[in-house]
């Protein structure tokens, strides 16, 4: 049996960045990916872009995006719940990652139209996350990394300050290896709906899981049971409001709805419950999953009219369409009189919309209603009317492994000599709450590379 220097648990972006870095440093590496080959790549295959600091144009990115502006964007969405040292490390290192990614087969494209001015901050992958994942797998194979699919790690044996062995199942049998070093890059626990329900209570039973069904937190739970230091709150997660018709698992990016800023959103009682125009969508889309989760039956409903239909990226499911609000209410099982009253109250609170500008904060606001709408507030009057249902879609959970700036894990007694973590399984160190579009890929790339470098140095 091959003696591996490094075992990497997981098969997404962070795992692949770690594998490439370690193999390039001369380490003998195996990737243990729980998913079957067609579903390899974890949540990374559903991604679109990578948020990147840069001084001056870089690749597809225009102008510049400074460390301080990037950090300010992160502080705003997390409400300051971040480890600033690790956050700055991720931000600062992101600039050198883009050319590194290109050298390993990733191709970029100009930002998609309708993505609300991300051309300066986010570099879009040609072929999306699937294109990135496939490029990286081609590269790791050229580097001689062994990849085992449907290899489910069931236990890491922590003996004192070292991981002594890795137990996993593969092809119907249980196997045991004793690598010199281990990198955990196996994501959060969101696909274990029982764990999600223990954290959140019964509302979680109505949540949809946007990403892979294979991120069940098995390795995370195993390490936490052995008192490996954790970070983050089990109820905090990257949760967005997605189309209520999405599948229970793996709907991915296409189930996301970008229409909220140009709409009103009501609950099943046809009442508005939050400011739909609070900020540009890439900075605020990730709060809406929690907002919908707090509503009766964990559902919401988007109402727009004809003039707003072409202002956002089209969704995978067509909207419901009706000539009257009453007809739309019937299609959505909403109280018709109450919906009309809510829309009329909103319309009456809208002022002059001549400054309306769909891609930036325009200050076109309501007055005299609660909740207000602080941007893009235009009366909903032009038939046909359109509606979407919203459900909470969880991308990944933030309870994870606590790491230092070398991506190393620890217990209360000190560092674990040969254990590192990267990607969603440690992102809670930086994302205490909220989310910033493209930042998960930044964390995975930066800390995957760090973990690969450190593990290879230790193994060598």
TrEMBL record:
Cofactor: FAD
Span of domain FAD-dependent oxidoreductase 2 FAD-binding: 5-432
Keywords: FAD, Flavoprotein, Oxidoreductase
GO MF terms, alphabetically ordered: oxidoreductase activity
Protein name: Tricarballylate dehydrogenase
Upper lineage: Bacteria, Pseudomonadati, Pseudomonadota, Alphaproteobacteria, Rhodobacterales
């Amino acid at each position: 049996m091959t003696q591996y220097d490094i075992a990497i648990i997981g098969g997404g972006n962070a795992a692949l960045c770690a594998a490439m870095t370690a193999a390039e440093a001369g380490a003998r590496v195996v990737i243990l990916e729980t998913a079957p080959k067609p579903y390899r790549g974890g949540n990374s295959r559903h991604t679109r872009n990578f948020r990147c600091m840069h001084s001056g144009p870089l690749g597809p990115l225009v102008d510049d995006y400074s460390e301080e502006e990037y950090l300010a964007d992160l502080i705003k969405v997390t409400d300051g719940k971040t480890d600033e040292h690790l956050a700055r490390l991720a931000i600062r290192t992101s600039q050198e990652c883009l050319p590194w990614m290109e050298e390993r087969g990733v191709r970029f494209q100009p930002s998609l139209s309708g993505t609300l001015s991300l051309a300066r901050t986010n570099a879009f992958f040609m072929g999306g996350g699937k294109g990135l994942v496939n490029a990286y797998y081609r590269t790791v194979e050229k580097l001689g990394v062994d990849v085992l699919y449907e290899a489910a790690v069931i236990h890491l044996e922590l003996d004192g300050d070292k991981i002594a062995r890795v137990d996993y199942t593969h092809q119907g049998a249980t196997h045991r290896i004793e690598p010199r070093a281990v990198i955990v890059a196996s994501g959060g626990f969101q696909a274990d709906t029982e764990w999600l329900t223990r954290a959140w209570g019964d509302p979680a039973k109505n949540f949809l899981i946007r990403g892979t069904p294979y991120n069940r937190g098995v390795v995370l739970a195993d390490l936490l049971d052995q008192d490996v230091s954790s970070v983050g709150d089990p109820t905090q997660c990257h949760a967005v409001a997605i189309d209520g018709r999405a599948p229970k698992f793996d709907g991915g990016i296409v189930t996301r709805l970008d229409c909220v800023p140009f709409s009103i959103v009501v609950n099943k009682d046809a009442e508005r419950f939050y400011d739909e125009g609070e900020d540009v969508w890439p900075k605020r889309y990730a709060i809406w999953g929690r907002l919908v989760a707090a509503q009766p039956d964990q559902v919401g409903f988007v109402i727009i009219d004809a003039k707003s239909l072409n202002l956002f990226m089209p969704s995978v499911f067509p909207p419901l369409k009706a000539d009257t609000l009453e007809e739309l209410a019937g299609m959505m099982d909403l109280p018709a009189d109450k919906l009309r009253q809510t829309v009329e109250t909103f319309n009456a609170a809208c002022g002059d919309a001549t400054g309306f500008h769909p891609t930036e904060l325009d200050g076109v606001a309501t007055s005299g209603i609660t909740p207000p709408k602080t941007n893009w507030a235009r009366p909903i009057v032009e038939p046909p009317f359109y509606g979407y249902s919203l459900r909470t879609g969880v991308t990944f959970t933030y309870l994870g492994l606590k790491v230092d700036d070398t991506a190393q894990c620890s217990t209360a007694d000190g560092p674990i000599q040969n254990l590192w973590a990267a990607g969603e399984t440690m992102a809670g160190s930086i994302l205490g709450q909220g989310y910033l579009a493209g930042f998960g890929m930044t964390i995975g790339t930066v800390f995957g590379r760090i973990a690969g470098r450190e593990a290879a140095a230790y193994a060598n």
